[in-house]
């Protein structure tokens, strides 16, 4: 007894699979770059902000002239956390982070993870209040969770452009 199995279209199928693998990687890499930009932008909007010198002066109980030593190093730095939020992406992952050696490295950990804990922060300062209700803890996580639908749309769109498949 002889069983003969004939496969037709194997070379064409292999060609299609090679193209799908190549185009799928490119589409995924582009989608991750776009997602990283989106999430970084949203994390900056969600991040708390330090008060400016003007905001601190308005909160003072006295209106007398306050002088500061020329060698003083404790000046307000509003926007340091926002400027320290970085992104990286490649074909496998997109990362949004604040480097520990950046201008706001320690501050970012404290603001993101330790709200209402013994070594954390409890009160929203004047800079954060001025920024609005969005500025609060877990600013990077909330940027991802709040934009989950948009992230999936980006993935679908990039793969559709590549002619790959519909997620």
Task: Give me a quick take on this structure.
By secondary structure, this protein is mostly helical. The protein contains seven helices and two strands.
Features:
single chain, two-stranded antiparallel sheet, 7 helices, 167 residues, mainly alpha, 2 strands
Helices and strands, with pairings:
Elements: H1 10-46, H2 53-59, H3 80-84, E1 85-89, E2 94-98, H4 105-113, H5 126-131, H6 139-146, H7 148-161
Antiparallel strand pairs: 1-2
Helix pairs in contact: 1-6, 1-7
Task: Describe this entry's structure for a reader.
- With 167 residues, this protein is mainly alpha-helical.
- The chain has one domain.
- The chain has a two-stranded antiparallel sheet with strand order 1-2.
- Helix 1 runs antiparallel to helix 7.
- The longest helix is centred in the N-terminal third of the chain and has 37 residues.
- The radius of gyration is 25 Å and the shape is elongated.
Strand runs, count: 2
Task: Walk across the major sheet and give the strand order.
Answer: 1-2
- Give the termini distance in whole angstroms: 45 Å
Give the topology string: H per helix, E per strand: HHHEEHHHH
Task: Using the alpha-carbon principal axes, give the shape.
Answer: elongated
Question: Major sheet: size, sense and barrel closure?
Answer: 2 strands, antiparallel
Low-confidence stretches: none
Rounded mean pLDDT score = 80
Q: Output the radius of gyration.
A: 25 Å
Percent of residues in helices: 40-55%
Domain module tally: 1
Which structural class should the secondary elements be placed in? mainly alpha
Count every helix, treating DSSP H or I runs of 4 or more residues as helices. Answer: 7
Assembly classification: single chain
- Tell me what portion of residues adopts beta-strand conformation: 5-15%
């Amino acid at each position: 007894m002889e069983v003969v199995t004939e496969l037709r279209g194997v070379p064409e199928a292999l060609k299609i699979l090679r193209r799908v693998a190549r185009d799928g990687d490119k589409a995924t890499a582009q989608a991750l770059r776009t997602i990283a930009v989106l999430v970084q932008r949203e994390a900056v909007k969600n991040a708390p902000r330090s008060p400016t010198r003007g905001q601190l002066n308005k909160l003072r109980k006295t209106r007398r002239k306050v002088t500061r030593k020329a060698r003083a190093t404790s000046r307000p730095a509003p926007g340091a956390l926002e400027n320290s939020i970085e992104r990286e992406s490649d074909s496998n992952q997109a990362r949004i982070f604040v480097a520990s050696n950046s201008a706001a490295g320690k501050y970012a950990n404290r603001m993101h993870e330790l709200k209402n804990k013994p070594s954390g922060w409890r009160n929203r300062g004047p800079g954060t209040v001025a920024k609005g209700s969005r500025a609060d803890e877990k600013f990077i996580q909330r940027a991802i969770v709040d934009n989950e639908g948009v992230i999936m749309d980006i993935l679908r769109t990039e793969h559709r452009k590549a002619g790959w498949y519909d997620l």
